[in-house]
Design brief:
With 548 residues, the protein is an alpha/beta fold. Among the domains are: 169 residues, 3-Layer(aba) Sandwich (Aldehyde Dehydrogenase, Chain A, domain 1), CATH 3.40.605.10; 180 residues, Aldehyde Dehydrogenase, Chain A, domain 2 (3-Layer(aba) Sandwich), CATH 3.40.309.10. The chain contains 19 helices and 18 strands. The strands form three sheets. An eleven-stranded mixed β-sheet has the order 1-2-3-18-15-14-9-10-13-12-11, with helices on both faces. The relative contact order is 0.14.
Amino acid sequence: MSLTKLDIDRYITTLRTNSKEFNNISDVQLSSMLENVISNINEVAYFWSTVCSDNKGTTKTPAEGEEWLGGPFAAVLATQYYIETLQSNDDLSLNSFNKEENSYKVFPNKFIEKITFPFIDAKVYFNKSMSFEDINKFRGFSRRFDIDPSITLVLGAGNFSSIPYLDVLYHLITRRSVILLKLNPVNEYLKPVFEKVFQNFIERGYVIITTGNIEESKYMATHAGVNHIHLTGSDKTFEEIVYGRELNDKEKKLKNISKVNTKPITSELGNVTPFIIHPGKWSTSDIKYQARKIVTGKLNNNGFNCIAAQVVVLPDGWGQTETLIKYIKFYMNKAKDRKAYYPDSIERLNKLEKDKSYERVNKLSCVTPHLTREIKAYNKYELDEVWSSALYFKKIEYSSPEDYSLKAIEYCNGELWGNLGVSVIMKHHRKKHNRHILENYIEKLNYGTVAINEWAAIGYIIPQLPWGGYPGNKDNDIQSGQSVVHNTFLFESPLKGVVDTKFRISRLIDPPWYITNRKSRRLFKNLTYFQINNSVINFLKVGFSALV
């Protein structure tokens, strides 16, 4: 090992020495340190986004905007909201609480949010057994409980750069735990970025950042000095940590299985992400717009997202199903090929293509025309993330729009692996005649994030929403994981986050996060600096980059 066991022992000793001090840090002190973090992000933001785009092969292309949005912008936005929470002792607003839904509106809260993310609303839903008083009371974790000093091992994800940052931040704040961050080998180039960003935490011995491979990770995960583990990654990695091996289907149905690691572990582990297409009267322009949305959900970050679109659920017999499929393939083919930066991704695609049901639409993308039981290895498409730019279609027979919604819900809940996020595309969803169908989707889809008319990844960017799997996943059938991150209101027991937006946000231009928007690089760069400093000049730069 390049990183020795002695090195790891020394890191953990340092963290242990400083854990009591950090455990007793006040909200005021912590918020001050986080304000320093934002200043550091301001200094390193350009390098942060550039080093990511350089390693992913997207430098000086519109796709570089993804690295600004999913890197420094997401980091700054979340940090600002955490600071607001730490600096406020105010109760929740009853005006934002919907008693009938048992939901709390968390976005937008500010005028500027209505400008930067127009027509997007977000709520956090809670179990019906929780009252508003309960929701208001049970917030803050470390603010309400005496928590023993602890060390949290954060095993960072290798795809989007803000993931390890936000995972560290959440456990610093909620657990008052010092952090050993072990970066993924895929993006260990982020080490100098995070060392700069967390400089004041590192100098005080509250955070240590390291790299390493599987052997180093195993040693850290089993180290007696580590009290808690947080993993963003694969369910198979989770099983290796907890059970020492991957579990078979039979073992996943058992009540008890012997563990090799009994440490508390929280996790976010991905998803076979569905897009449910609800039948309605769509124009050709509508179809093209929604096709571009779906293709964005698939090809953003070249498909290496835990929330990447994988199965498009379609109404069988709907007059526009085949047209939608046609335009999805068209925009996939039109998209520029990306660097397959994740290990073995090309091999996975080549293996998929051997199934004769596939159609290769460009160098790095393929689709299957119709997901049926006759297709070889059918269940694999439903039970495994493809972790590549492959997309599948599933048609569902139905007798009415409501019947379709119930069957689509049953299919997604019962047949697809994971419960991280789901998207529902539905025209006129707020009309009175569709209200009960919309309520079906929101209430009955058992996912951590339900997005109406947008890719569920928008729930990741909105930091007030919890991000994680639907509650109730068992250790031996972990699905999308346990617990949540982000959640800047610090709700203790959120059920799900719900994003609601217009069927079409704009008829003039695609939203800037769409892969078809050619202005996203400059726009998200300027938006990041505006988020850090709300000056008039920075605001004008955002407006100019959006229009010109």
